Predict the structure.
Amino acid sequence: MHEKSVNHRNAFRAWKELDIRLKQKKTIDAEYQRIMDMELQHWRGVIKRIMSIIKLLASQCLAFRGSTEHLFQPNNGNFLKLVELLSEFDPVMEEHIRRVQRESDKWSVTYLSNNIQDELINLMGNSILRKIVEITKIAKYFSIIADCTPDVSHYEQLSLTIRVVTFNSIQNKYEIAEFFIGFFEASDSTGEGLAKLILTHLEKLGFELKWLRGQGYDNGANMKGVRKGVQNRILEKYPRAFYVPCACRSLNLVVNDAASSTTETTFFFSIVQKLYTFFSGSTKRWEVLKKYVSQLTLKPLSATRWASRIDALKPLRFQLCKIYDALILIIEDVNRDAETKVKARGFAKKIKNYKFICGVILWHDILFEINSVSKLLQSVTINISDCVRMLSETIKKVKSYRQSGYIQMKIAAKEIAENLECSTEFSDDTEVRPRRKKRQFDYEKAVDEPLTEEKKFKIKFFNYILDITLNSLNERFTLLETHSKKFQLLYDILKLKDIDDKMLENYCSSLEFILSVENETDINANDLREELRDVSRMLPYSTKPLDVLNYLCQNSLISLYPNTVVALRILLTLPVSVASGERSFSKLKLIKNYLRSSIGQTKLKNLAFISIESAMASTLGYTSVINEFAKVKVRRVKL
């Protein structure tokens, strides 16, 4: 009866008419809705442009604010200046600026204030962080890289980086990636305090710590300590999180050990540093140096990066004669003061010495070799197998130089000495000798005959420095070799087809043991043994672990050899150096400089996200961030 009633028919007809009008946009409030949609698109366009400006400034580590926050005023900061510039060419921003200038009410909405900037920076930083956490969860296994440094405000900043093996679905291959996940203020720099800080923040950010498989730190005692260090405290909770000391820092300490082993080496480097200080202390003296040395100018020694001292020795190695000529010109200049001439004469005498020339060549050869390896080890794609191979080659080259490099060094030094017109005899006028004591009896005379200056140089300088370098290389990379042996059969799987079954079985059992905790294990030893046999017969040629992983992926064999894939991914996840943490410190110094020393920790972290992970920030969707911004800024009217 209701369906046939007049009221029902009228109501249904009215509803259908309204439905048709809504579809055709012919309702009584259609014009108002159109105006609302236009206004919505306008504000979304404004916020999108503001986000682009923020992304540009943050990625370039530039300051946002100035001394005033008003448009078209001097010194109003980079952000407002870019808004003004964009308004000259963009109609959306031009309309927005017109409205801002028209509405003089201080409560009018402009979205140009520093608070809005901070909110958008936080939303963009959080979006990048969520992407990193999502990628890490998909990759499953991950390692952490941590390093500390004081900022300009004298706060200890802990930089955290995640290393994972990701799958690139577009190129259909696996890639090694390292992602920055933030700066954290470390009030307690002890091993216990840093370990607690790292684990707490990883849990808050949403990382599943049971999949933590590696740790990478510098060689500080609070980090690498076997009892109270960060690595040991994390190992106690997560036994499969293997600690790998930074190979670059270890190389740096190797050179430091060699350079601080003798007083002669310390004296040698002090001459190199003082020579730079002498020329750089005066613009006139620097002009004289540039007149003679046009290609490689003098550079100061680094206080921490010993391996980078190659830059300071290159000018001396290849342009020592020209530097000497510059000193002579200063000495002969009648317009120079006496003190400058005396210093120049002293430096000229010190570098015009055959022993000093040999020292330049020796240290240049050592530092050149170590610095080359150090730069290669800073690559993100480097893994333990490549690191061990490079270090083995370095040790071989140092040993070879120890045996046959002395003659080569003398030949090169003799060529430079002839150009300098100095003696090729080993003499040391700076050596301090004890005062001779009068002997009353013949039996008190010295038994050993004194060594010649050349023998002294070869034994106490050349051989001693190289021996210290070799011993330090062997000692400081012991732990790296230990980890290398755990995964050694995975470095070249092609060779496994010639290995005895018993040896392969023992290796797989050992690998299963170290990748197991309680009743959980990452791999099965028996399955891994059979898989490795099959893969070794299948590979067309000898390949690196990452190449083997991509070979299995590109041939759709991932599901057939799951244990091999897991073992390779864990191997590639282990970090080799903390170079990513060092790179983040470069951004830290640019973002939090002496002009922005009071920047907050949250803003610092999010600006660092946009700058360091600029590639990920460039793919950031504006729509999702604007929707989040709208949810944050939504206001409800109380009726």
Notes: Strands lie at 142-150, 156-168, 173-185, 212-217, 242-245, 516-517, 520-521. The mean pLDDT is 86. Residues 384-420 form the longest helix (37 residues). The chain is about 60% helix and 10% strand.
